Amino acid sequence: MTREIPGFYYDSAKRKYFRIENSKTAPAQAAWSARNVKRRAIEEKEDAQRREKLQRQANSVKRTPVRKVPLMGGLLAREIGEVGGSTVPGAETLGRAWAGGLRAKGGVKLWPQYPDNCGMVSSMWVGGSDELELGIVYGALNEGLWAGAYIPRDADDKISCRHTAERYPGVDFRPRLYTLSDPIITSIKFHDSSGTILLASNDYRGGPICIRQFKGQPQNSGDPSRNLVLEENESVLLFSGRQLHGGPASTIHALQPAPYGSRLTCIAGTDRGIVQLQNQELAWLTPPSDWSPRRFRERTQPWKDRAPWQGDILSVDFLTPNSAEVILAGTRSSHVCVLDLRAPPDEWSAESSALKHASSAAHVRCVGPYTVLAAGPQNAMALYDVRFLQRQQLHQNNPAQWGGRRRWGENCTRPVVEFPSYRNQEHIHIGLDVLTEPGYGSAGIVAAAHGDETVALYSLGDGSRIPVAAVDGIKAHAVVRSLMWQTLPGDRHPSLFVGEGPWIRKYSFWA
């Protein structure tokens, strides 16, 4: 640092002091002449004032609130050539704008005899009839009471019974209750290929699991008085876990119908692995190991040869590119397994077929050709690319501690997108569904229930939360367990259906 000496000028280039000389005797271009020294002092003062003014202006400039509006802000960003930032142009902008326009459109109370705080819808399925443009909903309350009803709507797609008698003469819109011998209902799904409804249940007496296949909604043939909701005496095909060779399973956690072209009817995740329903026969898809729960509790051999897909399977799905042959399984041990049915199970390797999630994989969903969404407790929701499964390595620090075996899930695939605003600290049975139809965001929209009894929407593109006043305002009396995106017959856009208490509420685009 140089010192300022009166009567002298410091030349930073030559790194020396020069005596300031009168302009009449000094050379015309001399830096140490009195005239040039005074001129430079004035210029430096003006530059300092100019920089200070620019700094004050920068601190006073604020972004216009219009940039936070998804549609208008995104279009403005595209016009000025901005990429990224707080707004995302293109398909993501349109998806956020559409989601921001969701409004409450009424609801159906499947159990009118119960108060609103009696419990929560534990599982549901929403569909419809294309011929009458009628919506249909089936739901289970507290895993025990099963009911079905139509979804009457008015001209604004709002659930309303005001004009249903004129629009649908002879149709009974009252909810219909059903009875089952083993009332622990865990999942209700619809199999498109066979047009049947699949219902998974556990025996409250501790017996084997059951998968019921209802013959589904009857064909209407143009008669509006013909009921589409199942009658009490509809024939049921019962597939009991007693048929399983290798021992029965006592708990069924998840059920997923097979897509078109698959030889299977459905797959289900149980406490001992994955079962499959094929040609009206229930069989193990992942044969259970000889692992003993008692020996595991005693911790005598905690890492006995037992693959992740032979334990507690909390969620299952099919992978899109090979939807008939490749399945996904989320385990309680926090693994996401990618299993190719074209290879025998004894050839599957946990090193190349399983990645490690941050928590138990309560939900796994295929959301793209090779992308998988996994969500569970500990606020853990992330998107993975299964094409880049990393091989696991031996535990180098103390191999003898694990008997020389490889540890499942170590050094595995990292998430490509994370969801930092997701809030679910401890719940396994919690609602989640994904909208992946084209035109609703660059990658899709996730509807996820939070542990604080609220619901939120997230973008699959960047993992950020989408502000939606109608959905963000949901405040149930318990954790929401049932969420579903579905486009009802006659609707132009998908709607979000939320199981809140004994109600199935509908949220649709307002226009």
Automatic annotation (TrEMBL):
Keyword Repeat (UniProt): yes
Keywords, sorted A to Z: Repeat, WD repeat
Signal sequence interval, chain numbering: none
InterPro entries: CUL4-DDB1_E3_ligase_receptor, WD40_repeat_dom_sf
Organism field: Achaetomium macrosporum
Identification of the protein by name: Myocyte-specific enhancer factor 2d
Gene Ontology cellular component list: Cul4-RING E3 ubiquitin ligase complex
Keyword Transmembrane: no
